[in-house]
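User: Round two. Same drill as before: sequence, then structure, for each protein.

Assistant: Same drill it is. First protein:
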Amino acid sequence: MSRFWKPGSEKPSTLLVDEEEGGVVFLPSSTSSASSSGFGYASLERQRQRLPVYKYRKAILYLVERHATTIVVGETGSGKSTQIPQYLKEAGWADGGRLIGCTQPRRLAVQTVASRVAEEVGVKLGEEVGYTIRFEDQTNPGMTMIKFLTDGVLIREMMEDPLLTKYSVIMVDEAHERSISTDMLLGLLKKIQRRRPELRLIISSATIEARSMSSFFNIRWKNSLLGSSDDLPSPEPAILSVEGKGYTVEIHYVEEPVSDYLQAAVNTVLLIHEKEPPGDILVFLTGQDDIEAAVKLLNEEIQHLGRHYLDLLILPLYSGLPWGDQDLIFAPTSKGKRKVVLSTNIAETSLTLEGVVYVVDSGFSKQKCYNPISDIESLVVAPISKASARQRAGRAGRVRPGKCFRLYTEEYYLNEMQSDGIPEMQRSNLVSCVIQLKALGIDNILGFDWPASPSPEAMIRALEVLFSLGILDEDAKLTVPTGFQVAEIPLDPMISKMILSANEFGCSDEILTIASFLSVQSVCVSVRGVKKEFDEAKLRFAAAEGDHVTFLNIYKGFHQSGKSSQWCYKNFLNYQALKKVVDIRGQLLRIVKSFGIQLKSCDRDMQAVRKAIIAGSFTNACHLEEYSQNGMYKTIRTSQEVYIHPSSVLFRVNPKWVVYQSLVSTDKHYMRNVIAIEPSWLTEAAPHFYQFRTLNPALH
């Protein structure tokens, strides 16, 4: 078995042990040292050398050189996300115009990690170190060597470069999150590696089952000559475990189950501040709504309790947060202050917050959930797994011994909580996933090699919807030109179809604006204590037709104000979100122009706009139940009970027929982004689909 190393580098003193279960486990020698060298390095360099991953630098480079796939398991905070790409660059993997690609499941993590690495390398972000997320490219093709990007963006790059020939190494970070894009990417990278055995993969994770990932990537090259070549790496994956620098964390459980985790979290924060020594507090909640409610509750309590509690600095953390607000979270805490960060599970592994000593774990997160029989996909507040609970507790032991306060009982944790979460692939609508695979030329979707197979029912449902939208033909191939054009637009296929249909209805100008609004998180900003003013501001833009037309009114007002941030503030609108809408619209305009579609305006003919929306969203049609006292609708296809979300302008208006863009589930299924329609438009838009549904009641 030939062993080689980068010229001029010292081979690490290691023990490589062949594992019976496949893969090679690296055991570091006891002489490895993480001490700082005495050559007057800047403080950033000293910080880098203090990270736990530093003592594994030579080992990582050795394994990447020797093996096609290296699986790195290491706790959050070990430095793997920021340091491994730099080690690869220093070892020459970006020489000759090649790229080192590093993927993250979340956009916020991409931006944060890229920004930190640029700072450490001492370059301006967007030059040698850059990032690409949907609708935002901060790279320089001739200059960028380390490129951070979301899993989804890398999949889209494959449409132009199926073998990712620009990349010498691809690091898939936070693989344990098992997002739908991560699982797709892993399956695609495995296919690429068969054709490009020289491509190195690093699968990095905090908790991943290294053995199962190792057996997934244990590829036997098709050509037996490839396997014996000295120029190619071993197809057998290597596994490297990187120790963290965690301190002990004392776990506290509630004695009785709590009925309101939000109030319990607020009470726990106040108790910690009263009884515990200094140290920041990290609270895990489920989403933006929860977090904003908790911020409001905490601020009210602080005002009520008095001076001692004014030392608390309350900061929200979720993916739609503007950059300026994020900076406060990562900045060191001022003397005499205590930060309270209220976060989604993004702080579980994707981001490291220094200074946290106390963690409050609600025991819940917001998870995507899909039922292919009822065809309802929704965001559901659901219990977390033991793996997530351990990750959350670990955030408290970063700077010194910490404490984790779990808002559930020890008995529940030991006997009822699931060991691991369910991969998103097995609980999601697969429409976007199927069209991307089809666009990449993968026709046998049911036979695709997944790390975790999706349900055949969900796959068949996705094929049915894409066929009904005219995106796939009877042979399940992309239609020309619609299917290929939809695949090229980086949006949900239903929104993409809406954009293409707008051309025939003469309202592409309006629909591009609506599609841009649907691509950002809420543009409205709810402010505590001014509900009356907020409702009045909302009414200024409200359109009788529904939310989509309301977006057009907001966009018009924003333009007429000269894109003023002051105007946004007065109207309770998120200035950064509206700037993003303008930017996304410009990019979508370039894409549709490349299809030869000219921009047309319908001059306030909102019937044309609504018909274009239906062309993409007719599967989401609902009708109001007769004699319904509480605004209950039923979906036409599967008779599921749904309700208009309180944030919609149609809340309590309750038109007889509507289509919605998405569902969110709490105590009920709520429709978001709703528009009123005429039922006859459905049979106009999709006679085949609705006739098919009527004639086959057994399929309901």
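Second protein:
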Amino acid sequence: MLTDHDHQEWRHSSFAEYIIYEVATRKVTRLTETGQRATTSYAKWSPVGHSVMFVRDNDLYVKVDMKLEVRVTYDGSSTIFNGIPDWIYEEEVFTSNFVCWWSPNAQHIAYLRLDETNVPEYNMTMYVEKQPREDSYPTEVKIRYPKPGYPNPIVTLHVYSLASPAPTTKQPVRALEFKKADAFKDEDRLIVEVAWMGNSNLMVRTMNRSQDVAQLYLVDATKLSATFVREERGSVDGGWLEIKQALRYIPAREGAPEGYIDLVVHDDNDHLAYFSSLAADKPAYWLTRGNWEVVDGAAGVDLVDRRVFYISTERGSTERHLYSVSLDGTNKQALTPDDHGFYEAKFSPHAGWYTLSYKGPDIPSQKLYSTRDPKFERELSDFSWLKEAVAKYKLPTIRFSTVKSAGYDLNVKEYLPPDFDPAKKYGVLFRVYGGPASQLVTRAFSPGFDDVIASDPSLQMIVVIVDNRGTGFKGRKFRVAVRKQLGTLETIDQVNAGRAWSKLPYVDPKRIAIWGWSYGGYMAGKVIEANSQVFQAGISVAPVTNWHYYDSIYTERYMLTPQENPDGYEDTGIRDPDGFRHANYLLIHGTGDDNVHFQQSAYLVNMLTESSVDPSHYELQYFTDNNHSMGQHGAYFVIWRRIIAFLHRVLPLQTGSA
């Protein structure tokens, strides 16, 4: 199956013309002969047979055995989505372009229906989408974008069976009902995970709007009946629950019933648990345990040898290593060396094979392994081309360490110039993201702008990255401390780190700046607002400046709703101008940002203007029609040049500096 005339919609979604190429006959045909061309937003082959489900104009279809085209839904519209997510479910829940799933035997299709009729619209002006000779007026793009406290889309689960009569407008596929007494109401319910458990059962995870209660249901796909299985609550430590797609089906074997694996909070960390039946509400075995975390659930499951493979942080929160463990929690084995490395693993469907990618800190490599034959090893790539390219440059020296803040050890990554001389004085540029459950400080090899800054002899700067409280992979206590007060503890940690570096003998304390993108832009603004006198400059790219203006699902996970936490929303916006009077600040944003709206920067500039902050202390660079990634009209590379020019101007080399 090939695509043509692809057109990007949002971060993960696009429209295209889907084309079927028959290998044996070399015949090429359109997937569907109905409807307009290049309007299909998703298509997926069945796991067995030759059927394809696809979504066009927000309606779900299935082409059975590439012959009969069946229309499954009829109500798709600009506000009704069947089988694909709307904007917020694409961005914040599934991070993908589909919400429809074949059963393993290809006899059923489970899908979500999202109704965003009551979601308010955000209007975004696109100024140069058309040439002036075509149209003198800008284009208005309307997005159903729920902000905190406003209605979310109503989501329902449906299952279509290919053996049943084709649906009609009068007899549509009915929605699943969650009949538990305290099941979440439609307006309060998120559906965050759907996983097939064999050919006729589904597991469905729902959450409340604030994402601190999760309910797991077992669904009989043939009867469309839901049985409550278990509940998780973030209230045990005052935190939220992470959205995850970690459920793994374990078929019945040798008298043992079918069960499942899930990623569950255990002793302050995310760990793998094996539930010995689909109705089990408590684990039969904890497959992992300890003061470290499993990353993203089970990486692979070998049902022949009854082994589960996973990536974890057991050897350090900045590292990733591959392990295996038996389904009863015994016979744990490390499959990567204790080399302070960062590894990723991808397994074949039955976990007979896997690719192991070494991601750093040295030059990456990739090998193929067999789980059946421990002697089998084949190198797929040694990235020799990258080794040759890197050898041509003098790159910074990278050091890993920690810095204390409020009794916590914060992970640090420091880039020292190639010819670093500890007897000289260097400026420091802090790069920050700092958002909940994120991580910048890892052992992965990731050359980029940090290397450019640290290698530029005209700047003479060190780059420092600090993962503050709220970031991931150091346990829930560290992570959920920021709930209801985003930007508060994180700012304290970044300022404390800045103060610690300002006292180092090789640092010029008058040349310290901080910059970040998105949540990192918010953090840079909060640090300047803090008026610590530690940072002389800040740079924010596409920042949040007021949490009232960001999307509901992300924001309410950490802040609750404005009705539940009014003081928190008031306190966490960037609203105090004094820090901006004592520093230099560069604000960059794209006017076509569908994620963090240009409204955020407009709000901040208005606050600075109304507060009579000297305009010589702040600068604004906007990029016309650019989205959150700044990839349009050449903006991306201009940003880097703009940042470097700003640093040269506001933090010039002083006499006696390096």
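The two ends are 58 Å apart (CA to CA).

User: Perfect.
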